[in-house]
Amino acid sequence: MPIDATLPYDDNNIFAKIMRGEIPSTKVYEDEWSYAFEDINPQAEIHTLVIPKGQYVSWDDFSAKASAEEIAGFVRAVGEVARMKGLVEPGYRMMANIGAHGGQEVPHLHVHIFGGQFLGPMIAR
After folding, report:
1. Are 84 and 28 in contact (CB under 8 A)?
2. What is the mean pLDDT of residues 106-120?
3. Which of 36, 56, 100, 117 could form a disulfide with 50 if both were Cys (CB 3.0 to 4.6 A apart)?
4. What is the four-CA torsion angle of 8, 14, 20, 24, rounded to 10 degrees?
């Protein structure tokens, strides 16, 4: 069920539990700012999630409250994961769902990286 991205951070969300090691994940990348792991319900041949390690509900929350170092580290991590997965050529899609209308289901900022196949139109009609 989509969430309200203006709610306060809930440190019992599934991604917080993954970062704490309470729920297993298939780690792809980790540094001091970010953690990346394979989606358990992939929507493309390659479907990896990248999350910041800070407690941010959405892109709005992150862009307003994160330090410049956190923002730079997270953006660099997204790019690094795409390179690691060999997606720069022929291309890939990044997506961050924000709030109820955007379809956000987990109240922790996350970027989906999709690739490994032709992805079709940007928004299904």
Report:
1. yes
2. 96
3. 36
4. -170
Q: What 3-state DSSP class applies to 5?
A: coil
Active-site residues, by number, are 110
Tell me how far apart the alpha carbons of residues 103 and 69 are, in angstroms, rounded to a whole number. Answer: 28
- DSSP secondary structure string, 65-109? HS-HHHHHHHHHHHHHHHHHTT-TTT--EEE---HHHHT--SSS-
H or E element in which residue 60 lies? helix 59-65
Please count the other Cβ atoms lying within 10 Å of the Cβ belonging to residue 18: 19
- Any idea what the Cα angle at residue 70 is, between residues 27 and 56, rounded to 5°? 75
Q: What secondary structure letter does DSSP report for 3?
A: -
Element (H, E) at 61: helix 59-65
Q: Which of 48, 40, 46 is nearest to 14 (CA)?
A: 40
What confidence score (pLDDT) does residue 18 get?
98
